[in-house]
Amino acid sequence: MWRRPEAILGGLLFTAWRGAAALGSTQAPPGAEANQLHAAIVNGDVESLRYWLETRHADASGANAGEPGVTPLARCLGLAAKVLDAPPASGRDSSANAPHVVSLRVLQEMVMLLHGHGASLTDAASTRPPMAARCATS
Question: What phi and psi values does residue 64 have, to the nearest 5 degrees?
Fold first, then answer.
């Protein structure tokens, strides 16, 4: 049975359009890399942090979408402060209700990794004035 060329061409175009739409929907939202960096830091996962910085080229100073003022470096310093300020463990087993604690050694490794990728304590994108203001001053 022979098909009409219009039907074949229409089917090919529909298939190509659906494939392009699927490719476009698999891309991560703009702040996803920063969110992954912060998740890796909170979980103490140095290898995941390294992956997002070196393989995915995430911004080392990118703020978290949920907390725009907190950069990855600031998150590391905040966790270090919590570790250093933590009260000594009591006699009872409090590991069941205690949050995950990242060791200072792991935090040091993460800070060095972030520093090697140019991290700063402030998000460069949020501290830079808008383009119109920069053009007006020059």
Answer: -70, 145
Residue 25 lies in a domain: no
Of 76, 66, 73, residue with least CA distance to 124: 73
In a domain, 114, yes or no: yes
Residue 68 lies in a domain: yes
Per-residue pLDDT of the chain (138 residues; tens, 9 = 90+): 556 666 665 665 566 555 544 444 456 666 788 889 899 999 999 999 999 999 998 899 988 888 888 999 999 999 999 888 877 666 555 555 556 678 999 999 999 999 999 998 886 554 444 444 444 444
Q: What is the pTM of this model?
A: 0.62
Q: Can you read off the two tokens belonging to residue 53? A: 């910085």
- The parent domain of residue 131 ranges over 32-85+100-137
Number of domains observed in the structure of the chain = 1
DSSP secondary structure of 54-105: IIS---TTPPPSS-TT--HHHHHHHHHHHHHHPPPP-SS--TTTSPP---HH
Nearest to 103 by CA among 54, 52, 41: 41
